[in-house]
Design brief:
7 helices, about 40% helix, alpha/beta, about 230 residues, single chain
């Protein structure tokens, strides 16, 4: 159940018996051969699946994140860290004022991590605010599912190549992760990573992806019980 499917009176009625909500934080950035909105599509799919099981409301996703290193790839749209933190804070404050108290934040992008510190600050200020930050690709459950198949997680590679993130044909085989040191600017990043895939197989069989998604969904369902 998404906010976009409701009117304000529906949300008011929801708040009479429930104070949980899921927030999806994503990014619009290069993902090799996958959708530029991959970091939104995956956590939103998890949120929708969890909402179908629990009835917990899903807020509209934040489609833009912190991606300055990918700006030389056309289609990438990056927020400054300060802008991103302020948007996340304003979203939480808006919903808190209306009565939401428990926030499960489904993060789809590693560059968004600085928001955790801002949420800690809000927890000190807003009585009763409870939140959980979940980045699906680094969870122990997902890592275990990948290791079972002797696979490692890489940006824009097999682990993100779900049917709903594919926008074209994927290459066969695998990519050797390039070597580099230091903090790269956007032009150097593109020179090093080329097609934008960080390494590993470009694609795997669908049953493996099903295992990955199920592992992440079970995590989400567990964390919603707080």
């Amino acid at each position: 159940m998404r906010i976009e499917e409701l009117n304000w009176m529906d949300v008011e009625n929801y708040l009479k018996t429930e104070d949980r909500i899921m927030l999806v934080l994503g990014a619009c950035e290069q993902h090799g051969y996958l959708s530029l909105q991959t970091d939104v599509k995956i956590p939103l799919a998890l949120a929708d699946a969890a909402s179908q099981r629990t009835g917990v409301l899903v807020a509209p996703p934040l489609n833009f994140g912190v991606s300055p290193y990918f700006l030389s790839y056309p289609g990438t749209i990056s927020l400054r860290v300060e802008t991103f933190l302020n948007v996340v804070e304003d979203v939480i404050r808006s919903l808190y004022r209306q009565g939401f108290r428990r926030f499960l934040i489904l993060n789809g992008h590693g560059g968004n991590q600085p928001a955790v510190a801002r949420i800690h600050e809000l927890a000190n200020e807003l009585p009763g605010l409870k939140s959980i930050w979940y980045s699906w690709w680094v969870s122990h459950s997902v890592e275990a599912a990948a290791m079972k198949h002797e696979l490692k997680s890489y940006h824009a590679a097999w682990i993100e190549a779900f049917p709903f993130t594919r926008v074209g044909e994927l290459p066969e085989g695998k990519k050797t992760p390039p070597a580099y040191q230091g903090i790269l600017n956007a032009d150097d990043f593109r020179q090093v990573f080329g097609d934008g895939v960080f390494g590993g197989p470009y694609q795997v069989d669908q049953p493996i992806l099903d295992e990955i998604f199920t592992a992440a969904l079970e995590d989400v369902l567990f964390y919603l019980d707080f």
